[in-house]
Fold:
Amino acid sequence: MITRLAGAVLRAVLVVALVLAPSLLLDGTSADAAQIAALVALFAAVMTLVEYGSDAPSFVEFRDAPPYNRIRFIAILATAMLLIAVLQTPSDGAVVHRFVSILGRTIADAADFPYSPVRLVVVAMPSDLSPALISQVRTAAGLSYVISILSLLIFVALMLAHRWPSRKRAFNVWVNLPMFDPSTGDDVVIRLYRDARFNLIAGFLLPFILPALVKLFTVVSNEDLTGYLSHTQTLIWLTVAWAFLPASLLMRGIALAKVAMIIEGKRRKTYERAERDGYLASS
Structure:
């Protein structure tokens, strides 16, 4: 109980640090923006404490299957900190700012090729946007997208190395998939494979669809995005959401497929053992 509560408190503190980092480390944060960030951080901390401090799961998936959620959190935290370093004024940290800016531009140059998600983000920007702001958006998109891909590759590598899910502990479907009801609908394996395919397709298409939807929204509603994008905190969280929502869907799809394979393999072994022991007639 004490260990679980201590882990929940540590996770809540890390979540608060992530939410408050842009408002604390960037200049020009208004009082209203700081208050909103504090409220969001408080809400996120309470939800984290409730989720990880209790035995019964509520909504966080793969809670007992590390490092699934840890990879996602570390990737989001690293992206947010790098974007803060890129978008801060040089006086706040000239050396770090110059280094990360050069690194970000290099990564953005490599990721900005025809029909790539980064190129689509740049194309979706309003035509009256200043070149400096477009360069910031391009750098932020390139950094975020590359880090999200790296986090996905790390998760796949761990899975291929048989490090996820851990073989040292039993995989509890109820704890790790609290929103999944195995007693309803079709066969569990069929449903898991179907959900996995849906998440994989959605995760692959979203980086291409979201910029098009934003462009369509600006054309139909005649909304000016300059004010939103010129606000540093808004730019950071929009870029993080654009990059990591698809990556999270891809990770979830891969994880669901892996769980379906585990259940299918254990079911096959159970049938083979029952048939070998004479409890099941061979076909």
Notes: Residues 232-276 form the longest helix (45 residues).
